[in-house]
């Protein structure tokens, strides 16, 4: 049991005096789930877990902690992979889990106002029930919550069409580091009255403010979804197919996912229950999906586009979906990565970004460097190519303990040489902090520190996440 300092004891007493017992858990009441996120860092017990159920409650929690000089770690669904929501020694965990629910669906503005603790899947379902569509979608949809999605500016499967999470937000409410509640629940697409403040908080991983509510843009429900799983002979063909899809499918294209053959082998041969939609061996596998408004118009349009690609020699073989079950089957090959932890064992996972044209050169170089340096190395490559984002799963096969630091350094140094980013979607948190400077210039880092200083001068909010400040 760690001994608490006077200011921490005083803070806990003030929190307990302010909140009902269910909203402030300490000591043995602290739930196991709040001791870690999904980054596999060793668990840390927060000195208290505060779970307010109103924005004013969130503001009070921040104010009390700030007044006592105690740090706060904002927590959502704890599915983050970078350690952003992982507790910090001696800090309070501020969980939004009890501030959940849909407050308003406005069909005229096509907006939905949601509380930060609402699970993404609940939001998706509420939008569908109202005849709309929320395009934000990721594997953790059942557990992650919108506050965490906006805290990380989540990406996911349909970025190529709808953009990252930040592009789906019209209004935002948040609490500043001194406990001030700032409400900007704007429903208008156009609002150029001064700075667009919400963008500072989206993607800031809980280091600049705590998001309490958001106004999300609703999209029309797709009338039809069609997909093709294609086999291609070269990376040049992949890039040409992406260009052809941009020109020929335009805004209908909702996904363009690429799998390298090493990924395909592991996904379809080691993960149980994954069917190969196309036979034969290819150099690349591409999943192209369109979401159209009309089956009668958009399905034939897609069919004739894919025929053109066969005729142009870009596609060697393709399976085309005949039903939503087929679409789901194709996605299963891409989502099989979620099972790698079980079938391949402990590994290091990356969400890097690169210019599209250099992705295959990068993959070759990275694979070679890993194989040269790490005995029995395996690295597989796949991702949202159209968004400039690839994922890598890398490991030393058969090792009792993974050489994670060595693997990370090799991958991130290669990313730096190829002018990429060390995080395309999961954020920096603590896990990627040593590598932030590989991607951001000295001037950008200085500006980030200036922003932190302006908004959180005492370093109360999620200190030590993203970068160390004061530097
Ligand atoms: C199976 C699986 C698949 C995934 N797929 C994707 C994917 O395709 N794309 C993708 O981008 N990510 C993906 N992720 C990562 C993760 O799901 C996302 O980062 C998600 O957006 C995190 O949401 P959360 O509610 O779990 O947040 P948490 O993990 O609880 O928090 C994440 C960060 O946001 C901050 N935060 C939390 N709540 C707030 C708040 N109210 N205000 C301010 N800051 C806050 C935290 O401090 C932390 O820094 C995946 C994770 C898993 C486990």
Task: Please provide a written account of the structure.
The chain is globular, with a radius of gyration of 23 Å. It is 32% helix and 21% strand. A hairpin with a 4-residue loop joins strand 5 (102-106) and strand 6 (111-115). The chain folds into 4 domains: 6-95, Uridine Diphospho-n-acetylenolpyruvylglucosamine Reductase, domain 2 (2-Layer Sandwich); 102-220, 2-Layer Sandwich (Uridine Diphospho-n-acetylenolpyruvylglucosamine Reductase, domain 3); 224-338, Alpha-Beta Plaits (2-Layer Sandwich), CATH 3.30.70.2190; 344-429, 2-Layer Sandwich (Alpha-Beta Plaits), CATH 3.30.70. The protein is α+β, with helices and mostly antiparallel strands. The protein binds flavin-adenine dinucleotide (FAD). Flavin-adenine dinucleotide binds next to strand 3, helix 4 and strand 10.
In short:
With 471 residues, the chain is of the alpha+beta class. The chain contains 14 helices and 18 strands.
Query: Which ligands appear in the coordinates?
Result: flavin-adenine dinucleotide
Low-confidence stretches: none
Largest sheet: 7 strands, antiparallel
What gross morphology would you assign? globular
The assigned structural class equals alpha+beta
Count of β-strands:
18
With strands numbered from the N-terminus, the spatial order across the biggest sheet is: 15-12-14-13-17-18-16
* Computed CA radius of gyration, to the nearest angstrom: 23 Å
- Can you count the helices? 14
Q: Provide the CATH topology of the largest domain.
A: Uridine Diphospho-n-acetylenolpyruvylglucosamine Reductase, domain 3
Amount of beta strand:
15-25%
Average pLDDT level: 96
What share of the residues lie within helices? 25-40%
Distance N to C terminus = 31 Å
| CATH architecture identity of the largest domain | 2-Layer Sandwich
Tell me, what is the CATH class of the largest domain? Alpha Beta
The number of distinct structural domains comes to 4
